[in-house]
Amino acid sequence: MNILITGAGKGLGLSTVSEALKGGHHVIAGVRSLKQENEQLQAMRQEYPGQLEIIQLDVAEESDIIQGRDAIEQQFGTVDVLINNAGILVGRDKKLEELDMAEVEQSMMTNLYGPMKMVKHFLPLLRRSAKPCIINISSEAGCFTGAYGGDYPYALSKSALTFFSAQLRKELTPQGFAVYNVHPGWIRTPMGGEQAPGDPKNTALGLINLAERRVVPEQESWMITYKGEPMPY
Ligand SMILES: NC(=O)c1ccc[n+]([C@@H]2O[C@H](COP(=O)([O-])OP(=O)(O)OC[C@H]3O[C@@H](n4cnc5c(N)ncnc54)[C@H](OP(=O)(O)O)[C@@H]3O)[C@@H](O)[C@H]2O)c1
Question: Quick one: which of 58, 78, 106, 231 could link to 223 by a disulfide (CB 3.0–4.6 Å)?
């Protein structure tokens, strides 16, 4: 399969690239900027010749997305799986009166409008797949039942992403798509920190199982774990 992953330069995105390559897939790794060489991605490209493309894909920039879409269309013709993984966590622990609205906007641009723009522009390529799949990486921080009165920019953007996923699922499932909104767990990445209990490799494996449809969640759900289990919303 051709698997496109955003925010692929580190953290969960990088682990997912690695697991997808091990699974024999073609991977298109979107990174925010190509200016800085990413040694780990370069090493993977050498280890799996012909399986990995690295492209510039700043999900906040619609022009980047359109350019990326055109390049991928020319080279591959189709995308089977889109994993909207890129995300930011800014303005941590600020109370409402301390909020910098620029950080709220930046969070929406990346965590919500980014996936929306990606789906908008990649849908034509996904429609050419026999088994198209869209996986949005959300967070339990955006769950109604888990509202904790903090991280407003992040929590609100992830909550809205979850609703976007629900809308997409209604529209696209009848057309043969699998659409998932996944909480990846609290995992050891630059965002999650060293003290997090989860290994991003396990989450990445779970995402690939969902993408390959080896794991099919038993019931429709607003949010699932990386193992495909429904979560309260
Ligand atoms: N870690 C956790 O415990 C946890 C828990 C719940 C949900 N999540 C979600 O899981 C996903 C992956 O998180 P992570 O822990 O791997 O985070 P991370 O370590 O901070 O990595 C985030 C990735 O997203 C990229 N990114 C940020 N803004 C971007 C943009 N505008 N365009 C393209 N790429 C962009 C970053 O690129 P740069 O290197 O250029 O910054 C980085 O590669 C995120 O959506 C996050 O919200 C994580």
Answer: 231
DSSP 111: I
pLDDT at 233 over 90: no
Question: Per the domain annotation, does 193 fall within a domain?
Answer: yes
Structural domain contains residue 32: yes
**Structural domain that includes position 218:** 2-225
Counting beta carbons within 10 angstroms of the beta carbon of residue 118, is it exposed (0 to 12), middle (13 to 18) or buried (19 or more)? buried
Query: Which is nearest to 205 in space by CA: 230, 187, 221, 178?
Result: 187
Number of domains in the chain: 1
Give the Å distances, CA to CA, from 155 to 90, 93, 104, 144, 186: 10, 11, 10, 10, 14
Question: Pick from 54, 110, 50, 49: which is nearest to 85 by CA?
Answer: 110
Query: What CATH number did the domain enclosing 191 receive?
Result: 3.40.50.720
What's the gap in Å between 192 CA and the centre of ligand 1?
A: 9
The answer to whether position 65 is within a domain reads: yes
Q: pLDDT tens for residues 58-109?
A: 999 999 999 999 999 999 999 999 999 999 999 987 889 999 999 999 999 9
Q: Is the pTM of this model over 0.90?
A: yes
Query: Judging by beta carbons within 10 Å of its beta carbon (0-12, 13-18, 19+), is residue 103 exposed, middle or buried?
Result: middle
Pocket of ligand 1 from Cβ distances under 6 Å: 6-7, 9-13, 32, 57-60, 85-88, 110, 114, 137, 139, 184, 186-187, 189-192, 196
